[in-house]
Amino acid sequence: MPFELRALITCIPYLRLEVAGATQLSSGTWIADYNPAGGNVTITAYAPLATPIVWAIANGVGAPGLNGDTYDVPLNNALNINPMGTSIQVTATAGPLTQTVSAEVKPLLTGLDWVAGQYAFVDPNGGWYAYDLSGPLGAGANAITANLQAAVQPSTANAWTHLVWTAATTALPLAPMPLIPINGNQVQGIPLDATRNLRVTVEVSGSTQAIRQQDLDVRPPGNGANGLANSLGLTLDAFTFAGAGRFSVAQEDNANFNQPYPALWQRNPARSPPQGYSANSALSLNGITLGVANAPTAPTQVQARACILLANPGGAGPILLQATSPAVAVNPGVVLGASAVLGTLVLGNLPNRVMRLTPLLIFWEVSTNAGRAWSPLAVTESPVYVTAQMPVATTRGPLNSGAGPVFTYLSLVDMSCGSAEGQAGGPGNASAVKAAIYSLFNPANPNPQVRRLNAPAGPPSNLIYWWNHAAGAQPAQSLNGRSPLPPFGGGDLFSNPNSNIACGVWADLLIAMWALHGDGTAHKIQVMAASPANRGANALANVVNGSVFLVRNWLYGAHGALDANNYTHQAVSLATFNAVSQVAAPDPVAGQNNPTPPEGFENHYIVLDTTTGNFYDPSYGTVPQNRNGWVTVSLAGLAAPRLAAPRLPLPVWDAGFATAFGPNPSDIDPNLQSVALRDEMAGNWIP
User: Fold this and answer.
1) Which residues share a beta bridge with 385?
2) 80 dihedral zone (left: phi>0; alpha: psi -120 to 50; beta)
3) How many other C-beta atoms are found inside a 10 Å radius of the C-beta of residue 334?
4) Is the CB of residue 382 less than 8 Å from the CB of residue 410?
5) What local confidence, expressed as pLDDT, does residue 1 receive?
6) Helices within 327-457 (DSSP H only)
């Protein structure tokens, strides 16, 4: 039998991957740069002949090549730019073997530029400078910043995470500087809280792309400009705020109460009085006065330029208000300290929105060569408030007549502009502005937003509804009436030593702030028990004189005994309440910065918005309601002293005029007609 020799060929499995179009790091990850023109990271798989390759990708997009043994990760697809630290994982499987390639596509860094107008300026030689704006404006994380923006392709949030920012001073010894993120990792802010020269660099992590850098010279705010043409030296000495939309802000301190803050800014002594403007009105500066610090050697023409930068919520860059003065001549031999008055600058219209600019920065420059080059002169700071419309008189009355027929006190202007900041101006947005202002009164207690700025000592103090129990002080009963101070009275909003004010002052406060923004239609409403003393024949039959209304929450027992037209329960302390025909106050309703105001009152003041019919209760910060809605959510019936009971030491009180609609105390509703609402402005009762 013939012998047959057969060769057995055994196929040993293997899988090898090669990568093209990328550079491998020591960590093993492959790196390539984004390329808008195209190109790929190509992974080729080598396996035994006829072994099929199965590809998979995570954290990116790609596709197998035509012959199946290659896989392409496109470099022009933004989806392949992952957040820094997340790699694309391309996996090849051949039979029982699997291998994975980790790759990162890096964004292209195409530029590093200053954000237009963000407090960085270019000098005549092309260098960038800014000013140390610390002072009262803040430092560190609260500092005003000059902002740098990196340009990358693609411009995505994932791409920005690959940027590495550094900043350091350029003078020896070099010192690293912190940067403040402004818009993710794309825009970084340089804190302008010290004088220094520094360099900011940005690069793409792990890439060989070129590093981008910008330098900035942060200068002192300046007390003048020296070394001008013909050796002239100048200082900014004074200017006056002006414009048809300007209004005076009223002072609050006792020495100058009701007097308007001046419109004049002066260098010596330095003054930054607060100013008021209405939205979309022209901002002008009058009487710009320069002082001569060094006389010129020849006649020299001088111009001044003022620049204001305002945030622009709807645009990429800020709103720029800028104007240049006419030229005036400064001659040799002029007496040092003499003034050169440059006239008026009309910087343009303020934005049509509410703003609280505390402070408004004005950057001043001078030119001695007809505006071909400008030299820094000064940076001035002034609190400027912009209301939605020009303030109007309220129907409450022209109380602070010293500053005009409207309430323009600094605390009211500051609070209202702060709460309505960003709201559009003009009559068409009045309802939104009023709602934003009322939001001052409606946060959870304690409420740090309602405050006055002229606190007798220490920081601005929060306003308190009714008694300041901690100080044992009675509340002010007037917004600005200069009524006697304790122990003979509570003073007014600004003179009360403990910042506690009664409900009528809270109502006046809201009415006044609405009028500050051009809406004077609110009315002050007094709430009382509907007794014969105030409603006459229109009162409910069983309501007696001397009744008080009860502020929720009161706990009524024996719901079956309730009568919406009569007193049915005896008021007792919570300790003795036994759920029979008794009523007690288990949990006082907190008022503004006061957790325990009284549970009942003889009268109360709220505000009616006559344009909508809604009632507002700023003392408690309740949600606006119509007449019956406010009564229902705010009151729990009436109480009256029992006439047959001895008045001393304490009377016996009966309560009622309520109806039960469920098993819980919150389901006790008052008789809607048991209280009387009187419109003090219109002089009539509200049905």
Assistant:
1) 276, 356
2) alpha
3) 17
4) no
5) 43
6) 410-419, 430-438
Are the beta carbons of 534 and 507 closer than 8 angstroms?
no
pLDDT value at residue 469: 58
Return the bridge partners of 341, or none: 289
pLDDT at 141: 65
Long-range contacts of 620-626 (CB under 8 A, 24+ apart): 620/465, 620/589, 620/590, 620/591, 620/592, 621/441, 621/442, 621/443, 621/445, 621/447, 621/592, 622/442, 623/442, 624/438
Q: Is 412 exposed, middle or buried (0-12, 13-18, 19+ CB in 10 A)?
A: buried
Could you tell me if 504 and 605 are in contact, meaning their C-beta atoms sit under 8 angstroms apart? yes
And the tokens for 330?
């400064």
- Which of 396, 420, 390 is CA-nearest to residue 246? 390
pLDDT confidence of residue 683:
86
Q: Which domains does the chain have, with CATH numbers?
A: 16-106 (2.60.40), 109-219 (2.60.40), 229-387 (2.70.50), 401-520 (no CATH), 524-686 (no CATH)
- Between CA 169 and CA 297 the distance in angstroms is 38
Q: What's the gap between Cα 646 and its chain centre?
A: 56
Task: Give me the pLDDT at residue 139, please.
Answer: 65
Predicted pLDDT at 487? 62
Distance CA 581, CA 583 (A): 7
Task: Compute how many other C-beta atoms are within 10 angstroms of the C-beta atom of residue 108.
Answer: 18
Separation between Cα atoms, residue 270 and residue 251, nearest integer Å: 18
User: Distance between CA atoms of 544 and 642, rounded to whole angstroms?
Assistant: 10
| pLDDT value of position 650 | 58
Burial class (CB within 10 angstroms; exposed 0-12, middle 13-18, buried 19+) of 38: exposed
pTM beyond 0.85, yes or no: no
Give the whole-angstrom CA distance, residue 129 versus residue 134.
Answer: 15
Confirm if 638 and 568 have CB atoms less than 8 A apart. no
- For residue 480, give every residue at least 6 positions away whose Cβ sits within 8 Å of its Cβ, in sequence order, or none: 257, 258, 399, 400, 407, 409, 492, 493, 494
Residue numbers in the chain where pLDDT is lower than 50: 1-9, 397-404, 647-648
pLDDT of 223 reads 72
Strand residues in 597-674 grouped as ranges (E): 600-601, 603-609, 614-616, 635-641, 653-656, 658-660, 668-670
| Helix residue ranges, H only, 439-566 | 503-516, 532-535
Residue-wise pLDDT for 155-184, tens only, equals 999 999 999 999 999 988 889 988 999 888
Whether the link from the prior residue into 154 is cis, omega within 30° of 0, is yes
pLDDT of 535: 86
What secondary structure does DSSP assign to 54-93, as a single string? Answer: EEEEESS--EE-TTSSEEEEETT-GGG-PPTT--EEEEEE
pLDDT of amino acid 254: 84
